[in-house]
Amino acid sequence: MGYKVAFQSLGCAKNLVNTEQMMALCRAAGHTVTGEAEGADVAVLNTCGFIESAKSEAIDAILELAALKNAGRLKKLLVAGCLSQRYPDDIRTELPEVDGLLGTGSYTDVVSAVERVMAGERPEYFGPLAQADDGGERWVTTPPWTAYLKIAEGCSNGCAFCIIPKLRGRYRSQPMEALLREAQGLADRGVKELIVIAQDITRYGLDLGDGTTLAKLLTRLCGLDFHWIRLHYLYPEAVTDELIQVIAREKKIVHYLDIPIQHANDGILRAMRRRSTRAEIEALFAKLRAAMPDVAIRTSLICGLPGEGEAEFEELCAFLREQKLQRAGVFQFSPEEGTLAAAMEGQVDPDTAARRVELVVDLQSRIMDQYNEDRLGACVEVLCEGFDPEAGCYAGRTYADSVDIDGRVLFTAAGLVPAGTFVNVRITGASDGDLTGEIEE
Questions:
Q1: Closest Cα partner for 171 from 207, 135, 224?
Q2: Do the Cβ atoms of 410 and 435 come closer than 8 Å?
Q3: With 90 as the cut, is the pLDDT of residue 349 above it?
Q4: How many angstroms separate the CA atoms of 103 and 84, rounded?
Q5: How far apart are alpha carbons 46 and 142 in whole angstroms?
Q6: Which of 341, 260, 258 minimizes the C-alpha distance to 304?
Q7: Under 8 Å CB-to-CB from 156, ≥6 apart: which residues?
Q8: Each residue of 20-44: pLDDT tens digit?
Q9: How many whole angstroms separate alpha carbon 266 and alpha carbon 145?
């Protein structure tokens, strides 16, 4: 008997790929897959549990689904992913509406969980993280022109503030040939922008011990029919000269590099258990800009780590003023239980940390505004993502804008511009992080 199974995915793109794999498994087993929980037999919520804000979002989503269930508009609720892996006991006791759990090592058990929960059982699957099956078919849910390729699972870097190794296990690369088959399938479906993802893509292949590297994988991927290949995330200490040469040489790899540095003060970087110094980060950025003068660098920053005083914070601000990075995500330190940083001395008052985040966001927004101002008059390649009725024009992205996290280009055109096509747009204005322009016929 087939059931109607609704899927919701929270958190990062890596989580979305796991959701897409679960959707494909359920569909292959004869169940109807939907994104609408109301009226479904089972809702499967794939959660994030990385930091406090992600946990709150996940709990809110569980409560919304529980309300549907209590109203008789949903029969069963399964919770999967990082929150399940991290807090199974709390979910069992505090959220009795949840009918079953899937840990991050057990996504492939989703069909069994659905069928057991509909039989009145309360299934729980927590398989070994190191043996998690991260391959297999996916039901790609992104727009037809963009898709993710997850090349590895887990992380072995051991940053002091991060819980991911405990939730996802140690770093495990996918075999290159399997990735190439998956990428070929995406290209055959018409995907134009391939986004290569992992917690740390720079260490791809090093655990396999057979000479596989990210540089070799990217060279092979560039032989497939993609227009853009985008990279998330590169850890600074593992960016090799060979990798820089491949990115600079291969025309399909966009010169947008997401390199999370987290801070610029050497003492804070050591406390974070990061492997780069400020001088090494600056040297890497200089090398990237020399190889690719048009490179757009995105980073992630944490304010308020224990031990960050005003001097350390001011050094971070000075670094940003000097480097003028085009993109940045700024986060307040979240003392996550089970991490080294949560137990450190010198915890920063949360209000102070929040104020520092605001100051960095303000500083960084001025830098990004200047970057946009410098693009006025330029003719840029834009991936059109369709007509935006609210804006009254077309919307798309340049190579310097990744999906859902950066700005857009809003542009006018005399004729129809199909979504998923690349067009040249003359930039005429900038507003609130977005660019405006008109198509060059």
A1: 207
A2: yes
A3: yes
A4: 6
A5: 16
A6: 341
A7: 165, 170, 171, 203, 207
A8: 999 999 999 999 999 999 999 999 9
A9: 41
